[in-house]
Amino acid sequence: MILGLDAFAHPRFADLRAIAYQIAVLSSSKLCYLSNGSNSAGAALSGAVPHRGPAGDASALKGKSVTDMFADKLAGYILLGVEAELDCAASAAATEALKQAQFVVSMSAFCNEQVKEYADVLLPVAPFSETSGTFVNAEGRWQSFEGAVAPLGEARPGWKVLRVLGNLFECAGFDYVTSREILDEVQALTANTPLNNDMPWNCPVSLLIDAQGFESIVDRPIYAGDSLLRRATSLQDVAQKHPFAIRVNQNVAAHAGLADGEQAMAKNNNVELTLPVVIDERVPDDGVLVPSHLPHGSTTGAVTLSRV
């Protein structure tokens, strides 16, 4: 049983995970995850997540989830390698929160016009290829690497920028000189941490969905997963062979009064997406497949369809 990015981004992921784990138990199989990004396991082990400390310490000080950070409309945000309009599942809510914030710092190797609309300060950081570090992959394998080239211009590795900011704010624990020191500390903290996906069975309260309209299925193409891929011209030339479209099966199209090839609008709260309709029988009933990597962002959750 394998859960991937679409499951992680779903608002009812906890229920999906509980059901998937129970299916794995009853079928004598394993529950596995294709994680969001190449270092999700590393983030969990090191405590770089809001609900756990290093080695999964549940007693550690808990922070807000990303969803709560944007829902609470905080006064300030620091973004590290994030283009909110393209990287967040609820991109419209994310960009709205960033635009109303009093101060936003964007630390990234890239910049675009959307980021300029909400960021007050842009700090150039090197991509992973220009710094040393360690990834922990989905099977728990630690993979260290060195920077292929020196960072361009005044760009610096992200961890060094964070270290300096910590020094300026006089925070404890920001005295590292090399990334190796960070690696050694994390490995010492997690040396006795077992790697498994076992979890207690928590029966979902209800599997019913009280939604109006259709359920959007957000298409996240392989060549749009991060800022580097999105700027790889050769890869985007391949991606363009699959035109942007709103994909539904014939039953959904008939229910909405839509025909193959005509323009339609998919609407979710304040997000509107107008694209040609493609009849695709691989899309399930009551589902709408929409692209996630356009400048307007993605529409997640319940959507309504209408002719344009």
Brief synopsis:
This protein is of the alpha/beta class and 308 residues long.
Mean pLDDT across the residues is: 87
Strand content: 15-25%
Instruction: Identify the overall geometry.
Output: globular
| Helical percentage | 25-40%
Sheet with the most strands: spatial strand order:
9-11-10-13-8-12
SSE order in H/E notation? EHHEHHEHHEHEEEHHEHHEHEEEE
Q: The CATH topology of one domain is what?
A: Barwin-like endoglucanases
Q: Enumerate the spans where pLDDT stays under 50 for 5 or more consecutive residues.
A: none
Count of β-strands:
13
User: What is the name of the CATH architecture of one domain?
Assistant: Beta Barrel
Structural class: alpha/beta
Please report the first level of CATH classification, the CATH class of one domain: Mainly Beta
Word description of this protein:
This protein has 308 residues and is of the alpha/beta class. It has a domain at 214-307: Barwin-like endoglucanases (Beta Barrel), CATH 2.40.40.20. The chain is built from twelve helices and 13 strands. A six-stranded mixed β-sheet has the order 9-11-10-13-8-12. It is globular. The model has no long low-confidence stretch (mean pLDDT 87).
